[in-house]
Diamine acetyltransferase 2b (Austrofundulus limnaeus), 346 residues
Amino acid sequence: MNFKLRAATKDDCKDISRMITELAVYENMPDQVKISHEELERDGFCQNPFFECLIAEVPEEQKSKEGFTVVGYALYFYTYSTWMGPTVYLEDLYVMPEFRGNGIGKGLLCKVAEVAKKKQCVRLQLSVLNWNTPSRDFYAAKGAKDLTATEGWHFIRFDGQNLDNLVNEAPTN
Amino acid sequence: MNFKLRAATKDDCKDISRMITELAVYENMPDQVKISHEELERDGFCQNPFFECLIAEVPEEQKSKEGFTVVGYALYFYTYSTWMGPTVYLEDLYVMPEFRGNGIGKGLLCKVAEVAKKKQCVRLQLSVLNWNTPSRDFYAAKGAKDLTATEGWHFIRFDGQNLDNLVNEAPTN
């Protein structure tokens, strides 16, 4: 299968938005998606964008059943380790089901790794759900370490009322 | 105990660097710290900084045994959720042992929550080691959710040779 990997443009945000929802459906959390393609346009294509994104595109003659030629994406940004410095964090890596098994996911991952190296980041990090065996196997086969399993790192989140509570208790000095 | 919370300046990087190492010692991973205070100065105080940092400072008359007045820090940056938009990620929250129990850690956390709200971030996230019961209890008492325990999220990392391997396999198209 022919495919091309390229940097996303503002015009891709409708496709990215569609695939974000497809990925959330796969992760059994479609209700959590509150982002519109307008917000993606604003947040990713401004002076200091919150994220960067790569797109996988197939030729018109190989388009999906529904007529899409943008069939995968990798959305990432830069974080910071106080031990190791700048790091790339891969928020989403997705390929539409009918296009899997053609090296598109691997191609996207390798391209993001290339960006990391270019930006002098010594780490590429991401997170995955423990029941998502295909993804865990995919990363493990490429040598990734599961830091939750080996070192015991847990994700913690404040949001909604518990975040508001913190704000209300912030010292004024 | 009197303390003041304020934004870090470039001049604080030596103190931040010292406390990064103290925190890594507490986390039993001191060998992982490869960052110098010069790198913190460069990465945090440039045109598009990789992180922001708050400092906790006590008056001269309450300085630490070793003579330090900068006794805690909260280092954070902005990440992006493709479900919810901009998010604050708290990389490090630390208070020197002899200054704990005075509300400094809580003050720093609440101040970071305030930053999150001001920047229209609906989430404040962080990670913690599973054996670090004092920290886990601290966050849980304030209403934080442990997403690894409840949803099964695992941290995955590529670095060193496995990251290089990805780069070497990146498609050229």
Remarks:
- The longest strand of chain B covers residues 70-81.
- The mean pLDDT of chain B is 96.
- Helices of chain B lie at 13-26, 37-44, 104-118, 133-141, 147-150, 160-168.
- The CA atoms of residues 72 and 95 of chain B lie 4 Å apart.
